[in-house]
Design goal:
The structure is a single chain. This protein has 91 residues and is mainly alpha-helical. The chain has a domain of 57 residues. It is 43% helix and 10% strand. It contains 4 helices and 3 strands. Strands 1-3-2 form a 3-stranded antiparallel beta sheet. Helix 1 crosses helix 2 and helix 2 runs parallel beside helix 4. The radius of gyration is 14 Å and the shape is globular.
Length: 91
């Protein structure tokens, strides 16, 4: 696990690492980024965050969103991305 107090400000953290650090769901991390409350470094299909951006968010956001239950998280993430929900394989 990454320790924000001791890591470099330039260290890149994945969505999963930020979610673990902040004790929130990955969907909540993406929502913070989409709302502009957490600066993101975009990748191809992965979002990365500098440790400095996470520290700034923690210091400036105040209350962070509550964790989202895992089942609701998948549906919420699909809605956020404008993707249809996964369909069952007909074959």
């Amino acid at each position: 696990m990454v320790d924000l107090a001791t890591c470099s400000d330039y260290q890149l953290l994945s969505t999963a690492e930020v979610a673990e650090l902040l004790n929130i769901s990955e969907a909540s991390v993406r929502k913070l980024a989409r709302d502009g409350r957490l600066r993101v470094i975009g990748g191809f299909r992965v979002l990365y965050f500098s440790a400095r951006a996470v520290k700034d968010c923690v210091n400036g956001c105040g209350a962070l969103p509550a964790a989202v239950p895992a089942r609701a998280q998948d549906k919420e993430a699909a809605e956020e991305l404008g993707s249809p929900e996964p369909q069952a394989d007909p074959g």
